[in-house]
Design goal:
The structure is a homodimer of 195-residue chains.
Chain A (H helix, E strand, L loop, with lengths): L2 H13 L3 H7 L4 E5 L4 E3 L7 E7 L1 E7 L6 E8 L3 E2 L2 H6 L6 E4 L3 E7 H10 L1 H27 L2 H11 L1 H6 L2 H8 L3 H12 L2
Antiparallel strand pairs in A: 1-8, 2-7, 3-6, 3-8, 4-5, 4-7
Chain A binds a DNA duplex (30 and 30 nucleotides) through helix 9.
DNA sequence: CTATATTCTTAACCCAAGTTAAGATCGTCA
DNA sequence: TGACGATCTTAACTTGGGTTAAGAATATAG
């Protein structure tokens, strides 16, 4: 399967984009590869592209003014959309960095082209709405994790629900994602051995 | 100003709904009042209505299985939309309770009518998108509060940004919203006296 | 204006995460 | 293989929230 076919298939799964609707978009998608540590989008930049990950893992993180620590907010991996959603839809500067954690390949489309597609086909409008709902779900799930669960519960749920991330990311990045320091994660892991 | 005019004005401010577009919706809006403690929507119910608050304050809360405690997730007040967003857009059962904390009055519209309006006017499509973005911002802000701020910082920001809520809600509800117990909020307040 | 319920604060004790620094383990590549 | 850097764990101590229960302050109603 070619990369374009993979994209076509994924968009069909995600939003029912059919062959004709996909054809409309075909001229607009571009391909890009990232080395480990390269940025998809940086703090204070406006996010102008929506990406589809063919391979690799990205993380978006915040830098805390006071502690100067990086705090991981989201991970994005294979066959997912990667975008700084708020910055993208409002075309305002981003509060985060989004960095490739591995060698990665994406296909991406410019916001102007996407907006153009919204006008041309209801399939693409539907796509836009579904991206919005996905972004909402990501943010709400994250809020719920922190409001309702302990760090230990968050750790267990990450292993359950996102083994792909757990298995491909160093523990200190996991700790940051869980909202705790590396030594605390070590203690949690130690505590759990007895269970 | 009549209640309908207030709604018209608010929708115009929020999403540029003009007189003609508002006319389309006029037959669909209904009025409802709530006593203190009455529910806008309950756990396991599908949220079928989107409300606009003319007066009053609502809270949506989660009941933790283990501790059986209520955890406040959002407050909604005058001139805001009240809705259980995820339940509303997916028409699936809600995880939360949304309760009126005061005597309240809302105007509300059924999802089927709203969907109908989406098809009739780009103004209403725009409204749908803006509600989605508002819901995303609410959820993302909440996630950021918990990921990046201490309880004390969250308390200060609530006073700064939402004095209307702070001044009209008992402290034990504020504590729950901040993700801490009432005695902890008391300690924070005490600590801060010296500043 | 008192009685009552609600809300808020305080105290004492417990426990988990933060902090810092040291050392163990793992990977990788010359 | 051996040496370096990266990652992970551990220890000792500090800090702040959780828990429980008591009591103080505030509202509300009779």
């Amino acid at each position: 399967m070619t990369e374009t076919q993979i994209l076509n298939y994924a968009l069909n799964q995600f939003a029912g984009i059919d062959a004709a609707a996909f054809e409309l978009s075909a001229p607009y998608w571009q391909r890009k590869t990232y080395g480990k540590g390269e940025f998809y989008n940086e703090y204070k930049n406006v996010c102008k592209y929506l990406g589809f990950i063919l391979d690799g893992v990205f993380r978006t993180y915040y830098i805390d003014d006071e502690s100067a620590e990086e705090k991981n907010v989201f991970f994005f991996s294979k066959n997912q959309v990667v975008v700084a959603y708020k910055s993208f839809v409002t075309q305002t500067p981003c509060s985060y960095y989004t960095e490739s954690m591995t060698e990665s390949t994406i296909l991406y489309i410019h916001i102007n082209h996407l907006t153009e597609l919204y006008g041309k086909s209801h399939h693409w409008e539907r796509f836009g709405r579904l991206v919005a709902e996905t972004a909402f779900n990501l943010a709400m799930n994250r809020a719920e994790e922190f409001m309702f669960r302990t760090p230990e519960q968050r750790y267990l749920e990450l292993i359950q629900n996102h083994p792909d991330i757990f298995n491909n990311v160093p523990l200190y990045h996991i700790a940051s994602y869980l909202g705790i320091q590396a030594p605390s994660l070590s203690r949690i892991r130690k505590r759990m051995v007895g269970k």
